[in-house]
Structures are given as structure tokens and as C-alpha cells.
Write a structure and sequence with these properties.
38% of the residues lie in helices and 22% in strands. It is an alpha+beta fold. It has a domain of 144 residues. The strands form 2 sheets. A 6-stranded mixed sheet has the order 1-2-8-7-6-5. A two-stranded antiparallel ribbon has the order 3-4.
Length: 274
């Protein structure tokens, strides 16, 4: 390993990734993470950057409301246990392998802040809140500290949190199908090369699947398709083969239509093919 690389906790690694993304001007509006990454420094940095977040916290994490918000005080779990049934809404966090991933959700707005308090180039009112997820199957609870523009609805926060499932599913697929974790890690460079190659292959397969799953254009009946082709061919032939109409021709009477007794067509119908 290079001498400048030292041990770092997961929250520190996450903070470094966020810093690199901000410096590189990567377009993003939200950050989602589970409780392993914690809050604190990450929360502060995202507020300074004007980014929203849905960050997992433990049930013992304290929350308090103030200003004009409803009175809330205590740990995340205690607050969740005290909520009335009317505070919960059943929402989907996105599509999973078996359809919509439904859970019961509750959202509490705790305080409003002016974004300018965290950065001179920021403006607008932002809301700090608590998002709670409850499993339909066993009632298990999960808690998230949130930061978003004032007026953001619970459905948006649920959708942001739900994006983590796609990331975790992507890692699992890369491991099972492409061998992301099948590396003996004998050297620093070897590990980076292996991971880079696997992720490049995974990106290519994801792009192929995206195009393969794209909706196909509606099918046109064979008879209708042939009619359209015939009409198009007839118009094309007339535009190429028909002589220009002179002034004298335009004033002459029209020719008789074919098929009547005593009349002879001057040319075959335009839609006759040989």
C-alpha cells in the first residue's frame, strides 16, 4: 500500500467520497446512507454544500423539535412508539425483485433553518426531520435523520431512501455474476485493477439490460404496412416520372376514367405494380 494511505473509518471514507464528488462538480441533490455511516460530520458537510440527505441512525439517537413545530423530544424509537395510527402511511420505496417494496412510513418535521446559516452562497428555508420506516411483516423499525428544502413531501424522502436498495443489489450482482469479491488481493495494484475491471463490465451489462428492457415500438399489421409501402412507392414514381404540366394541358378537359365503354386510359393507374 502507498505510505500515505492510512486506516479510516466508514464515516471518514464516506466523507472523503462526498468531498471528491463536490470538488468534481458531480451533479447530485441527495445523499442516502445507513446507520453505519453515522451523522455529525457528514450532516454538517452536506448542509454546507446545500445537499439533502436521508441518513440512517440508531433507535437511541435523540431528536428534539422547536420553533413552530409540534413538540417532540426523546429517542427515535420512543418517538416512533408514541405515534398515533394516523401518522403512518403505506408507501413504496421503489420496485424490487417481487414488485413494489411497501412499508409503513412516518415523517416528523422538527425545525426549519435558513440555508444561509451554513453557506454564504445558499438561500431558502430547509427542514430538519425524522423519517421512520416500519416493516409490514414484523413491525421492525428503522430511523433516518433528514435534511431537505422546506415543503418536501414524505414520498420524496421515501424514494431517496429507497435508492440504497438498488446500490446494495448492484453490489450483490457484481459479486455473484462477475466475481467482484473473487480476488486474492495479493497487491494494492492488483486489487484496484480487479475491482476496476469488474465494475466496468458491470456498467456495460447494466447499459445493455437498460436498452434490452426499453419498450418496443408498436407492431404494424402486415397488410397495413404493405399498403403504406405501395402508396409511398406510387407517390415517389409520380414525382420522378410525371412530366411537368404545361399551361395548355391544364386548360384541356380531363381524360376519361379507364374501364368505361369507348374510352381508353392514357396511362395505367399510379398504384399498379409490375
Amino acid at each position: 500500500m502507498p505510505p500515505e494511505v492510512t486506516f479510516a473509518t466508514k464515516p471518514r471514507l464516506a466523507l472523503a467520497m462526498i468531498e471528491r464528488a463536490i470538488t468534481a462538480k458531480v451533479p447530485f441533490a441527495w445523499v442516502a446512507a445507513d446507520s453505519v455511516y453515522g451523522v455529525g460530520e457528514i450532516e454538517t458537510r452536506l448542509r454546507q454544500a446545500g445537499k439533502g440527505y436521508v441518513l440512517g441512525v440508531n433507535g437511541t439517537h435523540p431528536f428534539n423539535a422547536w420553533s413552530d413545530k409540534p413538540v417532540v423530544a426523546g429517542t427515535a424509537e420512543a418517538i416512533a412508539r408514541a405515534l398515533p395510527a394516523s401518522a403512518w402511511a403505506r408507501l413504496s420505496a421503489g420496485e424490487g425483485t417481487k414488485g413494489a417494496r411497501l412499508c409503513d412510513w412516518a415523517y416528523l418535521e422538527l425545525a426549519d433553518f435558513e440555508a444561509a446559516e451554513y453557506g454564504d452562497d445558499l438561500s431558502g428555508l430547509w427542514t430538519r426531520g425524522l423519517l421512520i420506516r416500519r416493516s409490514i411483516a414484523d413491525g421492525e423499525l428503522a430511523f433516518f435523520s433528514t435534511w431537505c428544502p422546506a415543503g418536501t413531501g414524505i414520498a420524496v424522502l421515501v424514494k431517496v431512501e429507497g435508492h440504497r436498495w438498488a446500490i446494495e443489489d448492484g453490489f450483490e450482482t457484481a459479486k455473484n455474476e462477475l466475481g467482484l469479491d473473487h480476488n486474492e488481493t495479493r497487491s494494492w495494484h492488483g486489487w484496484h485493477r480487479h475491482v476496476s475491471l469488474v465494475m466496468l463490465a458491470f456498467a456495460m451489462l447494466a447499459a445493455i439490460r437498460h436498452h434490452a428492457n426499453a419498450p418496443t415500438p408498436p407492431k404494424i399489421p402486415i397488410g397495413l404496412a404493405r399498403t403504406r409501402q405501395a402508396l409511398s412507392a406510387g407517390r415517389s414514381r409520380r414525382s420522378v416520372a410525371s412530366p411537368s404540366v404545361s399551361r395548355s394541358d391544364a386548360s384541356s378537359p380531363p381524360t376519361s376514367s379507364p374501364g368505361r365503354s369507348g374510352d381508353a386510359p392514357t396511362k395505367p393507374p399510379h398504384n399498379t405494380h409490375t
